[in-house]
Amino acid sequence: MHHLLDALSLPLFAAAALVFVSVLAGVVSTRAGFSLLLVFLVAGMLAGKDGPGGFSFNDFRLAFWVGNVALAVILLDGGLRTELATFRTGLRPSMLLATVGVLVSAAITGAAAHWLLTLSWPMALLVGAIVGSTDAAAVFALLKSSGVRLNERVAATLEIESGMNDPMAVYLTLAFIGVALALGNAVADEVTLGGIAWSLLLQFGWGAAMGLGSGWGLAELLKRLGRGADGGGGIRALLIVSGGLAVFALTTWLGGSGFLAVYAMGVVAGNRARRLVRSSLSAMDGYAWLAQAGMFLLLGLLVSPSEMMDTLLPALGVSLVLMLVARPVAVWLCLRPFHFSPHEIGFIAWVGLRGAVPIVLAVFPMMAGVPGAHGFLDVAFVVVLTSLLLQGSTIGLAARRAHVALPDLDDTEEARLVFGDFVLDANTPLEGLCGFYGLPVPGESDQTVGQWLRNELHRPPVVGDVAELGKAEISVREMDASRITRVGIKLG
């Protein structure tokens, strides 16, 4: 009996102590600007066979299972916190980034992998697919902890993109695994364009249908249970998590994208039963952080730094091409048609955070038996480390430099620096405004300043948007839903 208890207590002590120390170190390190997720990843490495911990872990099936479950919980939590109002400005650009953007990033990064890692084209494009999407866990966590309030267009685009681009990355990874295996077995004719298109349709079709339907059903269930019948927000959060994981598993079994389904479920349920869900968000936050901690620690255990030395420099080259070329090109192509400003495009391009998703996807080819697949895990790990270290630790600085961070309106001095010294009602006649401040009168002067500003922007306005009128800058200071209510004026 004593031996049985030892078999329980020692592994449990090691796991709990590792999480405890990692969280403690992470809380301290975040004050220095480092990502908490980065600390979990490094802690896993230190506990691994090349670190002081010396624990040898190579159970890729367990890592695959834990990684997928953790991502499902994180996406569900992110969906519950996403308000439908943000889709007004973020849905269309996010959809393009989550599909075409991932494809462009994967293609350019794949080309870099072909030259730097001397891989065949199918294998190189597989590397591009593995690291091609942004990571919901990293984006949700680091935007929340960065301490900056982004303008609605930028924040919505980043959050919705990270919540919706996993299906495309999974699809591309599976498609290129199929191509690599087919070419290796000299049966390339088995991989057809029709089959690839049908697989993509199933991924998005089943994912959207299951997510929207289950979200509506969960919201109705929560309304019927009411506030007092379920014992509080903790029990309600457990109900939501278990329901989300069931939908994730069922959608995946049907051939759809479980990631898209669970995110859509969270968005629909969170908005249809907002007051009931809000009391569960504290518990959901705990589930999401536990999922992130477990996932990053486990994935850190998988990696052996001593085995990465041969590919370290080429992998760093692939990572730099992804951050400095592939992601910016993809973002510019996708967002320019929506009239995003150069500063907004630059910031969104920089915050293309990579986290656990590339490492989880790198396990796919290993489980499928693709030759040389362990090298993909090393490349993915280098990409994630550099992304969290360089991009994750500079979000606040980048937001301020790109002028996409909004001030606290209670901080009068900071608000005046951003919006100017003068505040006017958006219904103020434009001609009177121009006459008072000595500004040039636009051709159509029989409109309000709010109408003029909306027309000048050529896009749905958000707080912080700016248009120039002569020597003045007119900015959106306050809004009511989609209507501009107050503007700021900065002269000179």
UniProtKB/TrEMBL annotation:
The chain crosses the membrane at residues 12-42, 62-82, 94-117, 123-143, 168-188, 200-222, 234-251, 286-303, 315-335, 347-367, 379-399. Residues 415-492 form the Transporter-associated domain. One of its GO terms (cellular component) is plasma membrane. GO terms for biological process: proton transmembrane transport. Signal peptide: none annotated. It is a multi-pass membrane protein. SMART domains: CorC_HlyC. This is Potassium/proton antiporter.
